[in-house]
Fold each of these.
Amino acid sequence: MEKQLKFDLSYLQMADIWAKNSYSKRLQVGALLVKERMIISDGYNGTPSGFENVCEDENGVTKPYVLHAEANAITKVAKSNNSSEGATLYITASPCMECAKLIIQSGIKRVVYRDAYRIADGIELLKRANIMVEQISQQKIDALLKELEEEKDSE
Ligand SMILES: [Zn+2]
């Protein structure tokens, strides 16, 4: 298996583990920002720092101030000494329009996601901005993991 694909697979799996930190009851999303094979930031969907760790109101509706996973990862870099310029974003669900804007402005050059969101306008916007966008679906992840195991067995 190609080396980059192996890394993509690993980072996407790590983003999935990270997603489990989310307090959201509706959908847990995880994001990792990787630059030169280093994880420079991470995020999951949740409320801003200092707010209660509850994402939904009493009716189960997501609170308007919940940040998406990629927005949390990008803004975390802004607080650090790192730069997202040229980084790759790994995310368990495709970005929405609002996050796509942040991705473009933060200089991220590549986005790898797993699940397609029902509205694809965020993805369309990224493509318009010449950002490389790739989906590695759960089905593909399963196939790749199998392939990796077979490679190991034949070694
Ligand atoms: Zn979003």
Amino acid sequence: MKRSDFIKLSGMSSIIIPQALIDKCTEQDQEQIKPEVKPLFCTTCGTQFIDTKHTSGNCPVCSNDRQYLPAKGQAWTKMEELRSNYTNLFTRISDNLYEIITLPKFAIGQKAFLILSPNGNILWDCISLLNEATVEFIKSKGGLKAIVISHPHYYSSINDWAETFNCPIYIHQNDEEFIYTKGSRISLWKGAEIELWDGIKIKNIGGHFPGSSLLIVPYLSAKGTIFCGDTFYISPSKTHVSVMYSYPNFIPVSLSEIKRINESMINIPFDTLIGAFDNQKISPNAKEILHASFLKYI
Ligand SMILES: [Zn+2]
Ligand SMILES: [Zn+2]
């Protein structure tokens, strides 16, 4: 080792410290005094980002051709601002089903569903705002055993929710490339279908996104209830179901995709279909309407 690799401390002539060690300590000090980076939410899609490389330009989710960049330009907000300016509304749909939505409307108006189940509750999809009232409400219903996500437009603040409720987040592996904040609670699942508990299943159906998935809950209705997010779009008439690659940009999926999805749904028993937005529930003839809708294209 060269003489220049060491430095003497003034007044302590008997102690010499390797220069490399001093450099290391200085680097650590610099890391420690870095200002804390606050996660930012894209106000158009509601996705939370921690890494500034994703927030230094336009939102990567909205830059994708399924979304759009707003005419007024990219805008960001923080959880504190959401907590000050918005609230979450909890609505009981039935004994074991609650809906959680942010008011006034934030981002694309995402809603989450709390599904109560004997062996552990599930949050289907997620919303950006997580506040004290929401935590208290969900804990009063027994907390969460899992968060299950339909597709990337619901990633919102999933990592915060999963930390708060100490539970995993199920996301299909086909959508891994769209996960910009890879928290330790994210559990990527593979294949066509997995069973969770109490007969509840997640089914990968694709279409809107390669990882787009449905949640199938057998006990919420006589023949079973499917939560479809916006993987299937229930029309206002409730007599038609469509599948789009992009809803805001009106890009349909291909005919071969409609055929594939139609066939994938044939063997699934269900009578109720619950979509992503208000007034999107078809019951009890959801299966017949879904297949009749797809057959219009084929
Ligand atoms: Zn966005
Ligand atoms: Zn979507």
